[in-house]
Amino acid sequence: MKRGFEHQDQPNKAQRPRYDSTPSSVAQHYNERPDVGAVKRKESKIIRLRSFNNWVKSVLIHRYVRPNQNVFDMGCGKGGDLIKWAKARIHHLVAADIADVSLEQMQSRYKTLRDRSFTAEFYAMDCYQELIAPKLRPDLQFDTVSMQFCLHYAFENEKKARIMLQNVSSRLRSGGMFIGTMPDSNWIVKRVRQEPPRSFGFGNSIYSITFDDIQDTDDDRKKIGFSTYGCKYMFHLVDAVDCPEYLVHWPTFERLAGEYGLKLKFKENFHDFYTSASKEEEHSRLLSRIGVIGGQAPEMTEEEWEAAGIYLAFAFEKK
């Protein structure tokens, strides 16, 4: 069951830690995470949550990616979606990530793919401060741009958010899709506002979210300070993440996306996504094939399900 952060356990504003979220520190965090392999991953305390997240990404790719398409995987990490791209029978993949060690691990995975039917190129770069277009051949256009669990790092400031969106849109063809997953800022803000006065975090035994810049109003009835950009919090998820992140102010994100020719087609919190997508027969069968249900692992816990609600899935179309 959920374990909230008790009032007496929370540091006051003056005592709360400040988190280093420079690009180098984020890259270092992901570079230092070992690639433990499939067998070891099955021993994770959050194996069902991991499988659920993979199911969401698989459904998104199945819905919006077609054979022989060109794909840009921005923030590709260690290449956790390589098999998904292979199953989608894409033509060409461009993969970019700020963590160079992670990217090297992805390249190694790519070389050992049994169904390596698509070509690929890899770039170690910060896609929130550098442009991808000058690195690509002039005639290359993307049918799909995918950003999985990484877009929120761009919302440190408006400049980074705009460079990210320029990278999304500049080579995305008209009618092409921009798909992804990221923390649901509405869910997070609502959840932290349910906490007692002077409590600035929440979580359970597998995850925690703690803010360092928000504050209570004078009457202790509402937490404030959720800025449009640079609203930083520390996110910890067992066996996965332990670094600072930023809230994505959705109205601002959707407005900016529109400036870059991107129109929202779909947006759903993971809980709602499960309710709708699991009604489709093929996606329902995939729940067992991908390990969300069935098999020898314990069933998904209530704490894992709560953590799944942190995220949302989205899709934009290029005008």
From TrEMBL:
GO MF term set: mRNA 5'-cap (guanine-N7-)-methyltransferase activity; RNA binding
Binding positions (S-adenosyl-L-methionine): K57, G75, D97, D126, Q148, Y153
Region of interest (Disordered), ranges: 1-33
Domain of life, per lineage: Eukaryota
Uppermost EC category: transferase
Domain MRNA cap 0 methyltransferase: 44-319
Biased composition (Basic and acidic residues): 1-10
Alphabetic keyword roster: Methyltransferase, mRNA capping, mRNA processing, Nucleus, RNA-binding, S-adenosyl-L-methionine, Transferase
Residues carrying the site annotation mRNA cap binding: K78, K84, R109, H152, E245, Y311
Residue positions binding mRNA: N53, N54
Keyword Transferase found: yes
EC numbers, comma separated: 2.1.1.56
Gene Ontology terms: cellular component: nucleus
UniProt catalytic activity: a 5'-end (5'-triphosphoguanosine)-ribonucleoside in mRNA + S-adenosyl-L-methionine = a 5'-end (N(7)-methyl 5'-triphosphoguanosine)-ribonucleoside in mRNA + S-adenosyl-L-homocysteine
Gene3D superfamilies reported in the protein's UniProt record: Vaccinia Virus protein VP39 (3.40.50.150)
Protein name in the entry: mRNA cap guanine-N(7) methyltransferase
